[in-house]
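Tokens as discussed.
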């Protein structure tokens, strides 16, 4: 079984079938491309996988766990999400801060009790920073961690979005 399994995904909008019975597996370390002309259903497929749309039929599994039908924020918390065509960074924040913002779904303590949890907050921040720097290394942006995100060229901004 793959890391990601898509089985028979179908999406109907009234009488229009945008995606019809798509199935594939993605294994660990594998990269899979989805290609096709405009209107072929690529974005609809990604929206079903990431929880922005609930499939009319079929299922999606992540690491053997059924995720189709879960809301997008839950799927993101499990480690799968999408980016959009328009870059949506926080340009005045640093590259590192942008990645740290994306880690909020993995927070393991109640942000509403900052005084009682101050020590735990520092431990979380330190661990999150280490993790964020590893993500930046993965997309080859670790040397730019302290630069403003808005100063990056377009291609690096896209890689930053992937890290976030």
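Sequence:
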């Amino acid at each position: 079984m793959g890391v990601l399994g898509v089985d028979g995904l179908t999406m109907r909008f009234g009488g229009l079938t945008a995606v019809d019975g798509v199935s594939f597996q993605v294994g660990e370390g594998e990269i899979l491309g989805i290609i096709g002309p405009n209107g072929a259903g690529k974005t609809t497929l990604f929206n079903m996988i990431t929880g922005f749309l609930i499939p009319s039929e079929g299922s999606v599994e992540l690491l053997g766990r059924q995720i189709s039908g879960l809301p997008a924020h839950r799927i993101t918390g499990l480690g799968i999400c999408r980016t959009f065509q328009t870059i949506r960074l926080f340009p005045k924040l640093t590259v590192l801060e942008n990645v740290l913002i994306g880690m909020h779904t993995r927070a393991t303590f109640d942000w509403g009790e900052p005084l009682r949890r101050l020590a735990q907050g520092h431990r979380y921040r330190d661990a999150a920073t280490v993790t964020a720097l590893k993500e930046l290394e993965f997309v080859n942006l670790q040397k730019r961690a302290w630069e403003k995100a808005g100063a990056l060229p377009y291609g690096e901004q896209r890689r930053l979005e992937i890290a976030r």
